[in-house]
Amino acid sequence: MSEEATQDEVKVSEELESQHTENLAKKFRLIPGEEIHLTKKPSTFAFVGMYGLGALVLAVHILFARIDDMTSDNFVLDLIFSVMGFSELFSFTLVMLAITWLNRLLNTSTSGRWVSFWLLLVAFSPLIIQIDQLLEKITFFLDEPIGGWFNFDYNYYIFGLVYSSIFAIMTFYYQNSFHYAITSDAVIFEHSFLLSRSHRRILFDRISEVIVERTPVGTMFGYATVSILTDSGVGLVDESMGAAGAVNMPGSADNSDDSLSDKARKSLLRSFIGIITYQRTIRTVRPDPKHCFYSIRKWDKCKMLLNEMHKKHSQSNLLSDLKDSMSSSDED
């Protein structure tokens, strides 16, 4: 009886494994005869900056919710609290706008446009509610007053928890939307988030370099990013260095009635502005979760497999195999 039960368990396990393999083949769009050697997803700590940003937004909400309870013997802190208490909504908006600007300026993993849009929504939510209520009061004499959609005050605790929770859930969903695979024929990067889909397939003979990048946090928690460079430029991005381009200052444009001294002065001014705002563009490696093994665990195994498969499919290895086969045929 026990042997039959064991055989049934083995059969069920094999069926589940076969079904899982079929699902992966369908997801990665494998060609007939192609086999999967390794699959990876970003680690739990891959987007720790995103979760940290959500926690920061929650902390700002809690701070403003407890302004009235905060006391201090420090004159500077008392002044800050009094200013914030004088116009809490306006102060909250300014703080959130400063966080949005700083987050965008740092150009980190949290500097995307959708994150910036979320931060702007959080920043202007109190003002939107306040303006809506103000419009309803001003237009009370109309048959149908304007506004009145938000008949509640901005509660910092509730909105802080709601915004932070939604952001954390969407970040977790975004983190699990990436899936990578190394097959017998190619490297595949699959991404499926909401209504967006992307699928990239890179053949091993197109790979020119494999780069491993480990951040201090990655070193602590045991993950790294493995980027692939190809001869077509995959993995490289153009990054501008310096100021934001040349500026056409008012009064620096030439006019038909300018004298020689005016033209020389304006030319010197344009040259000076050009030097100050000079901008150069360099090609650098910037990990993109869509096109690299972003923050994966057991990265050394992934890198070793990539190197082995690249060596196996490279032209130099094929030529070496051809040379060996020709030498063996000559000896025979």
Features:
four-stranded antiparallel beta sheet; three-stranded antiparallel beta sheet; 332 residues; extended; 19% strand; 10 helices; 53% helix; alpha+beta
Summarize the structure in words.
Residues 240-247 have low confidence and may be disordered. The longest helix is centred in the N-terminal third of the chain and has 27 residues, at 2-28. The strands form 3 sheets. This protein has a 4-stranded antiparallel β-sheet with strand order 1-2-3-4, sandwiched between helices. A 3-stranded antiparallel β-sheet has the order 5-6-9. Strands 7-8 form a two-stranded antiparallel ribbon. The protein has 10 helices and 9 strands. The protein is an alpha+beta fold and 332 residues long. The chain has a domain at 48-174. The chain has helices at 2-28, 48-65, 75-86, 88-106, 113-138, 156-175, 216-221, 260-276, 299-313, 315-331, and strands spanning 36-40, 178-183, 186-193, 196-203, 207-213, 223-230, 236-242, 279-285, 292-297.
Furnish the topology, listing elements before pairings:
Layout (H helix, E strand, L loop, with lengths): L1 H27 L7 E5 L7 H18 L9 H12 L1 H19 L6 H26 L17 H20 L2 E6 L2 E8 L2 E8 L3 E7 L2 H6 L1 E8 L5 E7 L17 H17 L2 E7 L6 E6 L1 H15 L1 H17 L1
Got a strand count? Answer: 9
SS strand fraction: 15-25%
Stretches where pLDDT falls below 50 for ≥5 residues? 240-247
Q: Characterize the largest beta sheet: strand count, sense, and whether it forms a barrel.
A: 4 strands, antiparallel
